């Protein structure tokens, strides 16, 4: 009986020690693939003593503000050009600690089956934030729909359009609202996560699709002051596992691509 009591006590102490050692962080995500992938990461991180609490944000603005303010400890939703722009504009002291996935952006239409069918003077919606709006214009340039001034970098705006053969009328909308604009425009440039939420197929449905290249791989960001903390390495290592790569490839079937 004494030995049983000792073993029971030892087991209880071990369980208590594991629970006490576990660390919980809040990580901001946008709904859709980012949230789904982090849900798959959760049990992997938990094995290393890191509990992930996912906080969903419906736009691209709040997650960095929440991170900088300390309301969350990390976020996973953006690419490097967007983060750089936010830091330059708002002075955030946050930085990338690991790459995640790439979402090739696409042009969608309910009215036209091919880009060639888009008429002169057509309305085309693009995201209204500098990074995603610029990305949309770069896609249209790369596909020959427009020409841009030279040396525009990654954040061109409509005033940087040098040639517009179809005289396209650009309508700037919040990225999260882009799927809702589809009925009101001839074509809309939509980020993959918002496209999937709206029931669109990012592989089959776009009439133009971005090549999976350039700086648009998404990332995990943390506050600069936290970048060397042990939980950061656990988070990134848990994401960068063969299990998560297989999950991304199987779950999204080419709509989302592993970027590490």
From TrEMBL:
<comment type="similarity">
    <text>Belongs to the NlpA lipoprotein family.</text>
</comment>
<feature type="signal peptide">
    <location>
        <begin position="1"/>
        <end position="21"/>
    </location>
</feature>
<keyword id="KW-0732">Signal</keyword>
<dbReference type="Pfam" id="PF03180">
    <property type="entry name" value="Lipoprotein_9"/>
</dbReference>
<keyword id="KW-0449">Lipoprotein</keyword>
<dbReference type="InterPro" id="IPR004872">
    <property type="entry name" value="Lipoprotein_NlpA"/>
</dbReference>
<keyword id="KW-0472">Membrane</keyword>
<protein>
    <submittedName>
        <fullName>MetQ/NlpA family ABC transporter substrate-binding protein</fullName>
    </submittedName>
</protein>
<keyword id="KW-0564">Palmitate</keyword>
């Amino acid at each position: 009986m004494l030995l049983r009591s000792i073993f029971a006590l030892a087991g209880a102490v071990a369980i208590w020690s594991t629970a006490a050692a576990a660390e919980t962080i809040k990580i901001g995500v946008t709904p859709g693939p980012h949230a789904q992938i982090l849900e798959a990461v959760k049990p992997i991180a938990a094995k290393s003593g890191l509990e992930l609490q996912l906080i969903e944000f419906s736009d691209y603005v709040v997650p960095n503000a929440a991170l900088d303010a300390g309301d969350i400890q990390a976020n996973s939703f953006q690419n490097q050009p967007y983060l750089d722009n936010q830091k330059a504009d708002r002075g955030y002291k946050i930085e990338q600690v690991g790459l995640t996935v790439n979402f090739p952006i696409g042009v969608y239409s309910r009215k036209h089956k091919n880009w060639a069918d888009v008429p002169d003077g057509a309305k085309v919606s693009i995201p209204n934030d500098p990074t995603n709006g610029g990305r949309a214009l770069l896609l249209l340039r790369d596909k020959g729909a427009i020409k841009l001034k030279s040396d525009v970098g990654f954040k061109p705006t409509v005033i940087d359009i040098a040639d517009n053969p179809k005289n396209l009328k650009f309508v700037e909308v919040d990225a999260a609202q882009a799927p809702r604009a589809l009925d009101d425009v001839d074509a809309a440039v939509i980020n993959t996560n918002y496209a999937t939420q709206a029931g669109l197929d990012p592989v089959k449905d776009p009439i133009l699709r971005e090549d999976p290249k350039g700086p648009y791989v998404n990332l995990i960001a943390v506050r600069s002051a936290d970048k060397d903390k042990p939980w950061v390495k656990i988070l990134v290592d848990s994401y960068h596992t063969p299990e998560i790569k297989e999950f991304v490839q199987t779950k999204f079937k080419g709509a989302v691509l592993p970027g590490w």
